Amino acid sequence: LIYLEMIGEMKKPEEFPKAFVIALVVMFIIYSFIMGVSYLYYGNDTVKVLLDVYDNGIAKQVASVFLALHVTVSYTLIQQVLSRQGHLLYARTYLRHSSLINHISTSHQYFWKSSFQWFVLTVIFGLLVFLLANLIPFFDNLIALIGSLILSPISYILPCVYYLQCAKMQGLRVCVFSFFF
Q1: How would you classify residue 172: left for phi > 0, otherwise alpha for psi between -120 and 50, otherwise beta?
Q2: What are the tens digits of pLDDT across the range 135-175?
Q3: Distance from chain centroid for Cα 175
Q4: C-beta atoms surrounding 117 within 10 Å
Q5: What is the overall mean pLDDT for the chain?
Q6: Which end of the chain is less enclosed by CB atoms within 10 A, N or C?
């Protein structure tokens, strides 16, 4: 669902399919290279977490910092979509007016109130995620299972289905192969 948010923020939304394909190809090449080098050096003894390859030292610390930055940025991007939907739901349910949260101008009378609501929701979601990750003893296995079962449909199938459904609702005809050309 974050793809729809990205499309909505783009200056030229029609360029999204091309950007998406390029990003997937680049990620595939990078991940394949890392996997290939890892397997070349370690074979069947390749560790689950590549950080475990490093001895405790500066290289492992630097790699850990970069991994922490990667996870933080990824979480922030995805969490923004959740916070936005939570904020819209809050505005519709309790304020009975969702347009109050769509003001960008700091001069608008509801800007600071809306910004504070956004901040509170973001902190609440962050704390819930932190608690969930730390209170479930088998969290890593649970995430691996969930990721294995639903990552592909959520990442590749559902956005296409939603896009095609939206196009159909607007009376647009879409050629499926137009994404690649």
Answers
A1: beta
A2: 988 888 888 898 888 888 877 788 778 888 888 888 887 77
A3: 27
A4: 20
A5: 80
A6: C
Distance from C-alpha of 51 to C-alpha of 61, rounded to nearest angstrom? 9
Among 7, 21, 29, CA closest to 177: 21
| Nearest residue to 181 via CA among 4, 21, 39, 66 | 21
- What is the DSSP code string of the chain? -HHHHHHHH-SSGGGHHHHHHHHHHHHHHHHHHHHHHHHHHHGGG--SSGGGGSPTTHHHHHHHHHHHHHHHHHHHHHHHHHHHHHHHHHIIIIIS-GGGG----TTSTTHHHHHHHHHHHHHHHHHHHHHHHHH-TTHHHHHHHHHHHHHHIIIIIHHHHHHHHHHHHTT----GGGG--
Residues in the chain: 181
